[in-house]
Amino acid sequence: MLEQLNDIEKNAMEALRSVADQAALEAWRVTYIGRSSPLMQVFAGLGKLSKEERPAVGAAANRVKAALEAAFEEKAQAIKAAALAKSLAEERLDVTLPGRPLHVGRLHPSTQQLRRVLAILAEMGFQVYTSREVETDEFNFQLLNFPPNHPARDMQDTFFVEAGERGENPILLRTHTSPGQIHAMREFAAMNPDNPPPIRIALPGMCFRYEQITARSEIQFNQVEGLVVGENITFADLKGTLNDFARRMFGQSARTRFRASYFPFTEPSAEMDVECFVCGGKGCSVCKNSGWLEILGCGMVHPVVLQNGGYDPTRYSGYAWGMGPERQLMLRYRIDDIRYFWGNDLRFLEQF
Amino acid sequence: MKIPLSWLKDYIDLDGLSVEEIARKLTLAGLEVDEIKYVGLPMPAYKDGERHEFKTSGISWARDKIVVAEIREVKPHPNADRLTLLDLFDGEKEQVVLTGAPNIFHLKGTGKLSKPLKVAYAKEGATIYDGHADGLVLTTLKRAKIRGVESYSMVCSEKELGISEEHEGIILLDDDAPVGMSLADYMGDAVLDISILPNMARNANVYGVARELAALTGRELRKPLIEYKTEGEAVENLVAIEITQPELNPRFVLGLIRDVEIKPSPYKIQRRLRLAGIRPINNIVDATNYAMLDQGEPLHAFDYDVLKARAGNKKVKIITRPAADGEKLTTLDGVERTLTPGNVLVCDEQGPLSMAGVMGGAESEVTEKTRNVLLEGAAWNFINIRKTAKQHNLPSEASFRFSRGVHPSLAEVGVRRGLQFMAEWAGGKIAPGLVDAYPLPPKEATVTVTAKDVKRLLGIDLTLEQIAALLTRLEFKCEIANHQLLVTAPPHRLDIGEGIVGLADVLEEVARSYGYDNLPETRMADALPPQVGNPAHEWEEHVRDLLVNLGFQEIVSYRLTSPERESRLAAFDEYVALANPIAPERRVLRRSLSASALEAVEKNARADSIALFEIGPVFEPQPGGLPHEPRKLVLAMSGLREALAWDVKDSPHFDFYDLKGRIELLLSGLHYPDISYAPTDSVPYLHPGKAAEVRIGGERVGVFGELHPLVRDRYEAGNAPILLAEFDLDALRRIPPVYGVRPVPEVPPVLEDIAVIVDEAVPAAQVEALIRQTGGKSLANVRLFDVYRGEQIGAGKKSLAYSLTYQSDRTMTDAEAAAIRKKIVKRLENELGAKLRS
Ligand SMILES: [Zn+2]
Fold first, then answer.
1. Residues in contact with B628: Cβ distance below 8 Å, sequence separation at least 6, in sequence order
2. Do A103 and B554 touch (CB under 8 A)?
């Protein structure tokens, strides 16, 4: 009996060696350790053995069963591993095929740039102030120290609105966000007319100029102005604030310079240039070989403007500046045609 | 304004300063140099990595290769009639030079010249512009045979040397040009092109720029010596002036010069005029232009004999007055102008002579025959000149200056300078005296400045003496008394006001003179203002973010459109219309964001899929006043629902429910309660059966739906349906959001499906509302997962299948769920005639 068990084990082990796949393994299992296998026959016949034989045969049968089961387990693992290795070897994607696209949304580049600008200014304490796009001559020009027929009006060609006879106060499309300076000053001053509070605001919004629509000129554009009014505000503060802004906007190593300029609503007035970030100041087509990029116009708020806003210019002073997000984008992305901004062409918008 | 450096050097010593340094100083002080054009002087040679500062163009003249030479004889060319051979001396050697220049052709074969001609001579190897090429092409002179004669050098035209476009003949230099001298040393130049700011009209002349440069460098400003001999009858005996309106014409000055010989000006003068951008005409006209560029006062020369004849040989009387309505004058450009009372005329007793400050008249202009010249310098009201120049579309050098304000003191300076040049170049005799009517001298501007003012506004500590020194450089008169500085503006400036404005004007000059770059940089020490924020703006930005997250691309359209463009979508009766549109298709402000969004859909029709939004104002006209600018939101979708890929070949089109799903997410992102949707046929451009209005708390805040097929046909944008939504952002923003979070349940829910058959007319929202109402608190969610129509359930019916989620704070039993379900089914049966579908 014991010999038979040895044969069973030997035959089974030998047969297992040639098993190579799951089906053959299952057949082997049925043959060698299945219910009607010779091994199981041995177990079934144990009752018929003598008391003396039974323990030894039983122990041997159990040992063979355990050995065959362990071998089966081992073989099963090996077959699985081989199958996995085979499938890993076969299942190869072309990873260079394009990924599956999604419909995604984006902000218009101008909104993106406005946000960059306003976020920096917010951290410097500037709150957003918005006002209307259609204005009167009074708010767009006169209260900002552009009298009728002033030569400075040549700098801002204007769209006028048909609105009947309004004399020297026609309705127009604002040429800058500066009318908001007057609106804001009057609102703040109204909080406490004898002691108007300080002001620190950013004025973003769409502005309009009477221009032909070409690659270089547009009839509408965004502007962001800054306005500060207080009792201790100096030209040195203007320089400090705008230099801080430039370093945040264009990088900590950005170099700037201030050139004397003229705007009716500020005095002294200046233009701030930033060293050309395309060529590093060496001169290129973007900076027209000057090494500098005109970024913004600025100056101390003109006393007449302070007065018109309800702030006593002998006590209060302030500064203001204005800049164009689209111009900043054109420089940053080397966009050479301003018409892209309002062209609503997805092929442009999707690049931002 | 173009300023030749050589001319500046008449008034200031610029030795030791490079052209770029000069340009930089001017630029920082507000005289922005747009371009430097080199005309002979050495151009800076940039090494790699060196910074340029200015747009630079032009040519340098090699000092050893381009020199002053003299032509001694003009000989015929043996083989070419149109060419001549020049015997020329370049200071070292005699040369034979070939030329075709027409302006010396008449000397061919006349033998040795009694007076040699001075010319600009370019030797072999010199680099100059090719005179025959279009535009500016550099060429280097090489030895060549032309018609059998060897040629290796040239006498140059202005074009060849980069002075002007002139290539008709060679340059004939002034007689005193030293033979053999390097031409760069003799007349090498650089031209600064300066933008003149509106408040800096005083610098629209060479002397003004020299004055600024003197202030900026601390160098001495050399005043021009305006002296001349006079003879004959005094002017006052020959002409009189009557000014009818001094506020339009504060000053009028006349001088007279007799027996002038009209001929070309000296070459040096012609060259400078050309470099400054003015075409030389003759010595008299040139003298008026040159004096204007020199001192800033536009002058006008009359042919005195014409005026005298008009006056019947009596004393000429000049009258300045507003034009009569419809009065006519032929200006010297030959155009007959019809005038209006807003225009000021210079007249004699017979009628108008010229348009004051803008353009002279044809009849009395200086001609080749003129012998005696009456020279006018005047001051005019800048606003009036501005209007007149605009009205007649006559921008000129004179109106450019007068419309920005020229100080009346310059009228006299200008006339005397002009007479001086005329005498020098035309050899006339200047009549003694001037006739000077000066009824309205400007008020002398005096401003009080303290050290505290400078500290308060500029942020720097300066003593009164330091402030005075900065201003004196710009010719302000300064006087210190009682710890104050009394500052008086110099008599060439009209831009300094009084009081607090004058203070700002003067402080700007202090800052410019001190140098903006020398001012310190500080961080504000002032108190922070009241923190009011801008909730409307913040909310709108939040809406933008939500829409971007939902896959919408933001667009920004032109505010300006035309009624025709918008009428493809809808007709509006009234618009905010421009009085001066640039084009008919941009002549009104938009009434509808949808119209421009649809234009964008059309424009991007080739895209597989489009989902756009725009936020902004529309403009609703209000009679006689400012329009309303309500803010709107538009959403537009069209095209494929799913993005195509290499294994995704097709996709259904976006439909009503795609848009609605996004609107639901937008509104839930804004945390609005009580949102409902109702069918609407109130929007004519939407499909009447595929349009809904959005209500929040019963208020309509927007509409959306599929574009009406007839409207759809007006847009060339493929075949897919176009979905459109419009929201009134102002109404939406006013709705208070309700924030709150339901706790996340800890026990598992019981899920159950239920399908009911109802009449087609019963809205799904009603079924769902009833289910929710009946289910009460335990019914956590109801989700419609199928809508079925078909034979099985009969015509005019639909089956709605819902997945119900029961949820309670303890595990719910099936029996409890079944009880709720039973109640729901009963109510649906009773109230909607629904049948349970099994
Ligand atoms: Zn550059």
1. B619, B620, B622
2. no
